[in-house]
């Protein structure tokens, strides 16, 4: 059993802290956001993450998990301090390390004995050394400490599962002793440990995320070519994916990647490369393809309607992917303003993210949690997120609800034959258009 303090109680900090408690450690999750901590103390989970609430509540009840804003005290009591604060994108594209530096200062000021300081936030190569320097200067040699880089690979929406069943843990450390402590901590989660130095661990995180982003932009480029040559990208991806060297995952063509990490981390890696005089052209192209891909559904709509003015468009899904209410860099943030700009009348459905989305779209659109009501009487329906209820919707009913039978699917949720059988005009990504013989466009 270790005494662990986790700095930052967001997706990463809360989930990691909870999982460390679940495996028998004494964990205190800290944040500067008082509302977040008060809510957590009162049993309210600030993020939507399947299964998390139950595990948090169990560990709180069994007194292994607590929450506080008293960060200095939490630091003094801990043997291991995890840093899981945000590293948002600065104007320049690089990662903004303000929160990480603030935490490092507080740790230095409160260092009262040997501690292992573990960075879990996604940070540019060299940040581990930077943290070491800040803690060193603020603690004036009062106590020894080590810094470890232990990047996080969880996905939102399956964060708890991903942590409890992680495929590997990466541990980059300044000492064997510190590395061994963190390796021990991860034994309940995985047997696969990559032990390395700080810089390599920091690089593994960016290299992994940008590789996944590259797969997505690659398949989206292939999808765009498929549309021009009459091929079907879902079959192309299937045919590619059986090759173990390629792998079937992350070959789903669509409206591009969003979320709190791929967009920011791909730009940050380009910046890291620039800093050392390397022009990372491939990553730049990945970003460019992704930026363009988001607006594909709008151009498909515009190819059907000469003008979108006054057209009622039902938008299905606002979150950047299913099972999360996270709106950070969601494709909907680009697509909806474009529809509004063209004076379309947008009604949006999302089972979870409406509240978060309202902060971005305000009153410019209407929000609903009733899928079929959203579609009722719409001139066209556009799918932006492959939520389960959207993927499983009854296409016959969709056609009956719609004023015009037009479905633009940005996530390739449906089989072409199914859409044809339902009598829909169905446009998806990288696949032939399903036409409808009747003249329905006005
Ligand atoms: N969200 C995700 O799925 C993943 C995120 N990451 C990385 O993990 C890091 C954290 O990401 P999220 O959890 O999504 O961020 P988040 O924004 O959800 O949470 C960060 C938390 O840190 C708190 N904070 C800021 N300054 C603080 C301080 N001085 N002391 C204590 N708390 C402080 C904020 O109030 C906030 O609650 C980022 O670097 C991100 O790139 C890595 C893998 C997955
Ligand atoms: O560093 C991070 O924050 C995390 O970023 C991603 O996780 P996440 O952003 O939660 O979501 P993903 O499931 O990876 O999806 C990202 C985006 O790519 C899109 N995507 C994904 C897969 C695919 O085949 N096609 C595709 O368009 C999704 O719709 C979504 O918008 C990584 O998968 C995690 O390993 C990583 O820890």
Question: Would you give an account of this structure?
Answer:
It comes from Alteribacter keqinensis. This is UDP-glucose 6-dehydrogenase. Belongs to the UDP-glucose/GDP-mannose dehydrogenase family. This protein is an alpha/beta fold and about 450 residues long. The protein has three domains: about 5-195, NAD(P)-binding Rossmann-like Domain (Rossmann fold), CATH 3.40.50.720; about 205-285, N-(1-d-carboxylethyl)-l-norvaline Dehydrogenase, domain 2; about 290-425, Rossmann fold (3-Layer(aba) Sandwich). The protein has 19 helices and 14 strands. It has helices at about 10-20, 35-40, 50-60, 70-75, 100-110, 125-140, 160-165, 175-185, 200-230, 235-240, 260-275, 280-295, 295-305, 330-340, 355-360, 370-375, 390, 395-400, 415-420, and strands at about 5, 25-30, 65-70, 80-85, 115-120, 145-150, 170-175, 195, 310-315, 345-350, 365-370, 380-385, 405-410, 425. The strands form two sheets. The chain has an eight-stranded mixed beta sheet with strand order 3-2-1-4-5-6-7-8, sandwiched between helices. Strands 11-10-9-12-13-14 form a six-stranded parallel beta sheet. Helix 1 crosses helix 3 and helix 9 packs across helix 12 (about 280-295). The N and C termini lie far apart (about 70 Å). Bound molecules: 1,4-dihydronicotinamide adenine dinucleotide and uridine-5'-diphosphate-glucuronic acid. Uridine-5'-diphosphate-glucuronic acid binds near residues 152, 153, 154, 155 and 254. 1,4-dihydronicotinamide adenine dinucleotide (NAI) binds near residues 11, 31 and 261.
């Amino acid at each position: 059993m270790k005494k662990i303090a986790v700095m930052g109680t967001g997706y990463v900090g809360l989930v990691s802290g909870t999982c460390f408690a679940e495996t028998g450690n004494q964990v205190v999750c800290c944040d500067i956001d008082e509302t977040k901590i008060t809510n957590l103390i009162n049993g309210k989970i600030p993020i939507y993450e399947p299964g998390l609430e139950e595990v948090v509540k169990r560990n709180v009840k069994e007194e292994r998990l607590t929450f506080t804003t008293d960060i200095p005290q939490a630091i003094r009591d801990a043997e291991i301090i995890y840093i899981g604060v945000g590293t948002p994108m600065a104007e320049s594209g690089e990662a903004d390390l303000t929160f990480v530096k603030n935490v490092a200062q507080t740790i230095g000021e409160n260092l009262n004995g040997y501690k292992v300081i573990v960075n879990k936030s996604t940070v540019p190569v060299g940040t581990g050394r930077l943290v070491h320097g800040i803690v060193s200067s603020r603690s004036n040699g009062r106590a020894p400490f080590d810094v470890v880089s232990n990047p996080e690979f969880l996905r939102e929406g399956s964060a708890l599962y991903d942590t409890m069943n992680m495929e590997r843990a990466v541990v980059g450390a300044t000492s064997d002793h510190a590395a061994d402590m963190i390796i021990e901590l991860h034994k309940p989660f995985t047997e696969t440990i990559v032990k390395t130095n700080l810089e390599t661990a920091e690089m593994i995180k960016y290299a992994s995320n940008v590789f996944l982003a590259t797969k997505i932009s690659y398949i989206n480029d292939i999808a765009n070519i498929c549309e021009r040559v009459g091929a079907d990208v879902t079959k192309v991806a299937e045919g590619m994916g059986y090759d173990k060297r390629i792998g079937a995952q992350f070959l789903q063509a669509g409206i591009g990647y969003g979320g709190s990490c791929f967009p920011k981390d791909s730009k940050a890696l380009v910046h890291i490369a620039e800093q050392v005089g390397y022009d990372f052209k491939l990553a730049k192209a990945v970003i460019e393809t992704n930026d363009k891909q988001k607006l594909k559904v709008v151009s498909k709509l515009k190819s059907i309607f000469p003008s979108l003015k006054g057209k009622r468009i039902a938008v299905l899904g606002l979150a950047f992917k299913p099972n999360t209410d996270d709106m950070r860099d969601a494709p909907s943030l680009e697509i909806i303003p474009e529809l509004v700009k063209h004076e379309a009348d947008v009604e949006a459905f999302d089972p979870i993210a409406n509240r978060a989305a309202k902060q971005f779209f305000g009153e410019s659109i209407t929000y609903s949690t009733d899928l079929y009501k959203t579609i009722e009487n719409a001139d066209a329906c556009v799918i932006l997120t492959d939520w389960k209820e959207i993927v499983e919707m009854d296409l016959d009913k969709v056609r009956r609800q719609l004023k015009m039978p037009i479905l633009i699917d940005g996530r390739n949720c449906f089989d072409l034959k199914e859409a044809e059988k339902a009598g829909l005009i169905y446009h998806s990504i990288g696949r032939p258009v399903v036409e409808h013989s009747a003249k329905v466009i006005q």
